[in-house]
Amino acid sequence: MASTVLRALFAATFAMGMMGGPAMADTAHDFTFEKLEGGALPMSEFKGKAVLVVNTASFCGYTPQYEGLQSLWETYKDKGLVVLGVPANNFGAQEPGTAAEIKTFCEGNYSVDFPMTDKVDVVGNQAHPFYKWAKQTLGDGSVPKWNFHKYLVNTKGELVAAFPSAVKPESAEIKTAVDKALAAK
């Protein structure tokens, strides 16, 4: 009986790793999202770049941060920063739209042209594996509490910082952290 339980536990742990779950992930590069337009978006595409991962929503008091995110993207993309918008409907049902509606909203209202993923959960049991890994890596205090929470990944794929929603993308705090993340070799 004990050996059956151990085999089942091993199989579950192995399967979790094969699905990109937090148990076997070493870096952010081990995860894959779906693009807002469809198709896979492996984080491994961003090796050698820093990535600011932001859970977004179209109908939130923080939604105007799209402007700051676009500005940060334009300022730093040639230096190696990727801003990655991750629409989520976890807080106040403030991202109810379809992928096409989200894309139209972001482009039409904020001229967003940085990469965006398809809508995912960022908290709870159904959270995307990247967000489960982020919680495991940085602890419970780093979990998104609302929309526009930001995680910073350095050029090696290491999760190096988390910023709450109120920290604006164009803040000195984020710019300093981005500069440091870009310098990681």
Number of helices: 5
* Helix content estimate: 25-40%
CATH architecture: 3-Layer(aba) Sandwich
Outline: globular
Q: Find the CATH superfamily.
A: Glutaredoxin
Largest sheet, in brief, is:
4 strands, mixed
The spatial strand order of the largest sheet comes to: 4-3-5-6
Gyration radius from CA atoms, angstroms: 17 Å
Supply the number of structural domains.
Answer: 1
CATH topology: Glutaredoxin
Question: Can you tell me about this structure?
Answer:
A hairpin with a 5-residue loop joins strand 1 (32-34) and strand 2. The chain is 34% helix and 16% strand. The chain is of the alpha+beta class. It has a 4-stranded mixed β-sheet with strand order 4-3-5-6, with helices on both faces. A two-stranded antiparallel sheet has the order 1-2. It has helices at residues 2-18, 65-76, 99-110, 129-138, 172-183; strands at 32-34, 40-42, 50-56, 81-87, 150-153, 159-163.
Structure summarized in a few sentences:
With 185 residues, this protein is α+β, with helices and mostly antiparallel strands. The protein contains five helices and six strands.
Question: What topology emerges from the helices and strands here?
Answer:
Blueprint: H1 2-18, E1 32-34, E2 40-42, E3 50-56, H2 65-76, E4 81-87, H3 99-110, H4 129-138, E5 150-153, E6 159-163, H5 172-183
Parallel strand pairs: 3-4
Antiparallel strand pairs: 1-2, 3-5, 5-6
What attributes does this structure have?
185 residues; alpha+beta; 5 helices; disordered N terminus
